[in-house]
Amino acid sequence: MSARRTRPGSRRQVVIAIAAAVVATFALSGADPAGLQAADSPAGALFAEAGAVGGGPSDPGPLPADMPLADDGALDGGIAVDAGPSGVVYASADTFGGGRWIVALDAAGRARPGWPVQLTPGSRPVVAADGTAFVLACGPSGCRLHALTIGGAERRGWPALLEGAVSCDPPMPGARDVYVVCRRGATGIRVFRFALGGPLQRGWPADVPGETMAVRRVDLALSLIAAEPGGARLVSVWADGTVHRGLLVGTVGDVGGGRGYAIGEDGTAYAWGHRIRGLTASGFSTTLIAFDRGGVRAGWPFITRTPMSDPAIANGTVYVTLGTPSTHGSLVALDRAGRMRTRWPIALPVPATTGRSGAGVAPWHNLAGPSVGPDGTVYVTSISGGTTVVAVSPAGWIRPGWPYRTALPLVTSCVDVTGCGDPRVAPLLAPGGVVYVPVRAGSGAAARDRIVRLGAAGRVSAGWPVVAGPATTHVTGLTMGPSGTLLVTTRSVASAASVSLVALDAAGRVRSRTTLVTPSGPSAAVGAGDNGSTRTMHVGDRFLLALPAGYDWTVSIADPAILGRVLNITVPQGAQGVYQALRPGTTTLSAVGDPLCRRSTPPCAAPSILFELHVVVE
After folding, report:
1. Chain segment 151-164, per-residue pLDDT in tens
2. Residue 268 near residue 293, CB atoms below 8 Å
3. Handedness of CA 23, 27, 29, 30 (dihedral sign)
4. Distance CA 536, CA 538 (A)
5. CB of 65 closer than 8 Å to CB of 18
């Protein structure tokens, strides 16, 4: 697969708070594959709830992982899942205050010793082959790179200071080292190379003019596309820290939001962009180029007046989808010289549309781009009239048994969130030609999400589809886990909202389930700014109490039958606990903070401070 970047648009940061965690493992009943042909068909196997009857692995017990995640109680697929070595799975999420909460789970869904870990600031971890989890921490004081062992501790010699960096791309670990590409000032790039033992390698960091648009490890070197005024150039940074800059290639297209860049596995750079003259359909065109350090390669550019998707690049071939949401599209394959491959393009049996809404009027926004599976098969997914998945061989023919069609649409990752553009959860391409497709039956409060497992011949596998749970539970992401398991993140939007990570085997059986229960409500944390205020809650709602550091806080509740502290959970360092509304009524939470400096010798004379929160439970 290629490394790519498009110019960023507006992003909505999603913030929630985790309040409790429960782990349970259950067996599943059989499924009715025909149930996916209509929204009102019988449900398949169910991600069982507590009290379900059936065998299966033993209950792994409670997961001690309760940390604030982010903003207003709404989670838009905010749990990130990454599979590590030795069957370890890493789950992480943004925390209230700009940090990162990370937990490493074993094969039974239990938190491994030493986890969870919270770093503030912190980024999504990147897991190396030896299990080291690299986490970037960029804040007002600069950037550091943390290296966490599989036991949750910082590796010896870490964290590493990224001197001069103001922001960084995700780290790129190798077998013995790790590269980090950062922004240096307003118009510069700084590249770091560290040994896994921690020291910065001799000859590093390396500085490159411009702005990073795409980056990839190629053999022992690092390749990046640096954008400059008037164009971009391919830059190679060798293992000794020397910088080799290519020729400047002119800017492609005149629409900044529709411009993209990628680097193939062989180090070839690609850029594409759209041009609209007079804002009319007749003036629209798209240009795709391939270039190296010597400039644009012979045979390029590829220019089309038909709307074009972002490309997928694999094995020296560039695949793009052409078409419109109202007409059947085509799939194009270009070789390294920009020539159409034999037996291509392929006419698609369906309009190539993602069905994305809220993305604007640009004709390329609604095109379904191709994806390349581990075996080289090219897939295009359309939601025109439901969901259709087309599988095309690298030789240029639609594979027998395909396309797969259902009247049900792909699920959306927008769970009780408005203004997010209704992005779809894409099918997951797995080894062996297997494809997992998340679809939604029904709508509104009656909607139920299902996952279909398709074999290499395009047929629904035995034991599938499985149903994500009750109507209030939605699929927010799919990831391949250890030993061929499918990791499914789900979110409940019931009054006791929860985020779960479920591991399914190839037969659709649950191997583990880790549920992170989150509070509902407009705010997930209570702090000094809430002193003297009144908070309205519903039974089951929770909040994190995080009062100022530097004090020894003693918390009391006037009526503990109305509001109580949640016990046997882990909270962020310095926080005073998670509190839950137990029954309707009115009460007051009071806290007295005694300055820690009073314990010093000699003690200070600073006064104690008082905090009060009035709580109304409806």
Report:
1. 999 999 999 999 99
2. no
3. positive
4. 7
5. yes
